[in-house]
Design goal:
By secondary structure, this protein is of the alpha/beta class. It is about 30% helix and about 25% strand. It has 14 helices and 24 strands. Bound molecules: uridine-diphosphate-N-acetylglucosamine.
C-alpha cells in the first residue's frame, strides 16, 4: 500500500490548477445510463472513484472510454444495451456514490439491483431517502440479501419532499424523474453546485429541469433522452484544500481554474481567521503570511460550510491562536483525523459532534493513518507545517478524490513523495466511503 512522505516547513509558492469536481463527475457518469446515445464528459478528474465508476458502468454493459494522452480528462460513455442493470457489493462498498445508478437504471431499464452501501468510517450511510423518493415515483422496491431491487413499468411524476437534505439522493431522483411520465416537483433538495451541474448535463440531453441549485426542483418528464457533451465544473473542495495549504504554510499561492462563487463560505471563514485572499474570475490568490486567529465552524449543507472541508479546516485551526469549536452537523463520526492530528502535537478534544481545538500548538512529524478521503487531506496539510518527515499510510483514500496530489503540491514547493511498501501485504479492501 502506498504511503506519502511529507517534510514540513516549505511555503507553497506559485500556481496550482484545480481539477474537475469528482462529486459532479460521478452523477454525470451515472446520467449517461439514461440514454442509448453517446455522452461525452470533459474535465473528468483522474481519480480512483472515476475508475470505479467506469468499472461499475462497464459491468452493466455500457461502453466507457476513459481518455488517455491528450484526451486524458475526457470520458465517452455509451449505454446502448444495459444487459445487467446491477451494482455489486464489491463496487458499492468501496464507493458509496455507486448508489447513484439506482434512479437512472430503474428509469431506463424498468429494473435495478443495487447493493446497500452499509456503514462507513464517518458514520451511518443510509439510502432510505433515495428509496422513499423512487417509491413516490411509483417504483416497487424490496430489500433482500443486502440488495435493493427496484422495478417499474414507467415511473410517474409526483410530489417529493425530502425529509432531510441529501446530495446524492437529490441527484438520484433528479435523474429518475427526467424519464418519468408527467411532472415531478421535489422540495427540500440539496443546493450544491454539483446538483446544478448534473441538471445542466441532463438538460443538454433533452431533459426539462427547472430550479436545480435551489431547494425546489421541477422536472417535466420526457420519453427519451439523447447524447450530449458537457464540461464538469471545477472541484471546490480541492480548491479549498489548496487555499488552506497556502494559508498554513505562509505561502503565496494562486489557485487557478476554480469557481470562486462556489467557495463563498470557505473564503468567508478564511477571512475571519485572518487569511488574506484576492479573487479573479476563475482563480483565488492566498497570501498566507499573516497570524491566524481561531474561529468556530459548523458544517452545513451548501451554501454553508462544507463537511468535506471540515477535516482540512481542523488542521488550520491547530495553527490559529485561541480556541476553535468545530461542529460537525452532517456525519456523526467524521472526526477520525482528530486523533492523528493529536499524535502530531495538536490539542483537540472531541465532545460528541464538537471538536474543541486549542491553538496554536507546534506540530511534529509522526507516522499517521488516513481513515477517509478528507481526513487524509487534513493529514497532508498538517504534515506541510510539521517539524520533520511525516509518513501518511493508507493514501489510497486520498487517491479516491485528489488528482495527482503529490505532483501538484511538489509543483508549488512542497517536499512530498510517494513510497510503496517494501514487503507489500495483500491489499486490504478499502472501506471508507468518501
Ligand atoms: C455527498 C458527497 C459527499 C459529502 C456529502 C455531504 C457525493 C458523491 N458525495 O454525499 O462528499 O460529504 O454529500 O455534503 O456527492 N442521509 C439519510 N438518508 C439518505 C441519504 C442521506 O439519512 O437516504 C443522511 C446522511 O446519513 C447524512 C446526510 O443525510 O447524515 C447527508 O448525506 P448526503 O447528502 O446524502 O451525502 P452523500 O450524498 O452520500
Amino acid at each position: 500500500m502506498d504511503k506519502l512522505v511529507v517534510r514540513g516547513g516549505n511555503p507553497l509558492l506559485g500556481t496550482v490548477r484545480v481539477s474537475g469536481a469528482k462529486n459532479a463527475a460521478l452523477p454525470c457518469m451515472a446520467a449517461a445510463l439514461l440514454t442509448e446515445e453517446e455522452v461525452i464528459l470533459e474535465n473528468i478528474p483522474q481519480v480512483r472513484d472515476i475508475e470505479t465508476t467506469r468499472r461499475l458502468l462497464s459491468a452493466m454493459g455500457a461502453q466507457v472510454e476513459l481518455g488517455y494522452g491528450r484526451a486524458h480528462h475526457r470520458t465517452t460513455i455509451q449505454a446502448r444495451n444495459l444487459t445487467t442493470p446491477e451494482a455489486s457489493y464489491d463496487l458499492v462498498k468501496t464507493m458509496r456514490a455507486s448508489t447513484l445508478v439506482l434512479g437512472p437504471l430503474v428509469a431506463r431499464c424498468g429494473r435495478a439491483r443495487v447493493s446497500l452501501p452499509g456503514g462507513c468510517a464517518i458514520g451511518a450511510r443510509p439510502i432510505d431517502l433515495h428509496i422513499k423518493g423512487l417509491e413516490r415515483l411509483g417504483a416497487k422496491i424490496t430489500t433482500e440479501h443486502g440488495y435493493v431491487e427496484a422495478t417499474a413499468n414507467r415511473l410517474k411524476g409526483a410530489e417529493v419532499v425530502f425529509d432531510k437534505i441529501t446530495v446524492t439522493g437529490t441527484e438520484d431522483l433528479l435523474m429518475a424523474s427526467t424519464l418519468a411520465d408527467g411532472e415531478t416537483t421535489m422540495q427540500n433538495c440539496a443546493r450544491e453546485p454539483e446538483v446544478a451541474d448534473l441538471a445542466d448535463l441532463l438538460n443538454k440531453m433533452g431533459a426539462k429541469i427547472h430550479g436545480a441549485g435551489t431547494s425546489t426542483i421541477c422536472v417535466k418528464g420526457v420519453p427519451k433522452l439523447h447524447g450530449a457533451k458537457h464540461r464538469i465544473i471545477p472541484d471546490r473542495i480541492e480548491a479549498g484544500t489548496f487555499l488552506i495549504a497556502a494559508a498554513l504554510t505562509g505561502g503565496d499561492l494562486k489557485v487557478s481554474g476554480c469557481d470562486p462563487t462556489h467557495l463563498t463560505s470557505i473564503l468567508q471563514k478564511l477571512q475571519e481567521v485572518g487569511v488574506k485572499t484576492t479573487q479573479g474570475a476563475d482563480s483565488i490568490r492566498v497570501m498566507g503570511d499573516t497570524p491566524h486567529q481561531a474561529a468556530d465552524v459548523f458544517t452545513e449543507e451548501y451554501p454553508g460550510f462544507p463537511t468535506d472541508m471540515q477535516a482540512q479546516y481542523m488542521a488550520l485551526a491547530t495553527q490559529a491562536d485561541g480556541t476553535s469549536i468545530i461542529t460537525e452537523n452532517i456525519f456523526e463520526k467524521r472526526f477520525m483525523h482528530a486523533q492523528e492530528l493529536v499524535r502530531m502535537g495538536a490539542n483537540i478534544k472531541i465532545e460528541g459532534r464538537r471538536a474543541i481545538v486549542r491553538g496554536r500548538t507546534p506540530l511534529s512529524a509522526a507516522a499517521v493513518l488516513a481513515s477517509d478521503l478528507r481526513a487524509s487531506a487534513s493529514l497532508v496539510l498538517a504534515a506541510l507545517v510539521a517539524d520533520g518527515e511525516t509518513i501518511i499510510d493508507r493514501v489510497y483514500h486520498i487517491d479516491r478524490g485528489y488528482e495527482h496530489i503529490e505532483e501538484k503540491l511538489k509543483g508549488v514547493g512542497a517536499e512530498i513523495r510517494r513510497i510503496g511498501e517494501m514487503f507489500p501485504r495483500k491489499a486490504a479492501a478499502p472501506t471508507a466511503q468518501f
